[in-house]
Amino acid sequence: MKTRIITAFLCLALASCASQETPRDVDTVSSDKITTLFPPKVTKADEKGLSIRFAEVSMGFDATCNPFRSFSDKRNDCNELPESVKTLALDHCEKHGKKAVFMGNKTNIVQMTVSKFTCQDKD
Fold first, then answer.
1. In this structure, are residues 55 and 110 in contact, taking their beta carbons and an 8 Å threshold?
2. CA–CA separation, 35 vs 56, rounded Å?
3. Is a pLDDT exceeding 90 seen at residue 85?
4. Three-state secondary structure call for residue 32
5. pLDDT, average across residues 15-23
6. How far apart are CA 18 and CA 6, in angstroms?
């Protein structure tokens, strides 16, 4: 019985760490109500993708978006990216002849946003 409880807990912990976001092209991500407090910083980068850390300021919210995304089949349609972050991602992937794909946002321990991008072949 104890083994089952531990196994269930480990499965739950692993599942909660998995990304819930749906990938989408950076060009399609809105930048309407969001900006950065400081210039964004690339934290990891290679030919496969990159991560960008930034402090954001957003004005208002979309009342039609579920912030917890618990009932949405289009998971990260609510996420927005500042133009400076989009430009960094697009330029990085363009250097490798690929397109930038937004994989989602996370928050680090000091409450800064970390956006993850992959570089994929152009269609």
1. no
2. 6
3. yes
4. coil
5. 58
6. 19
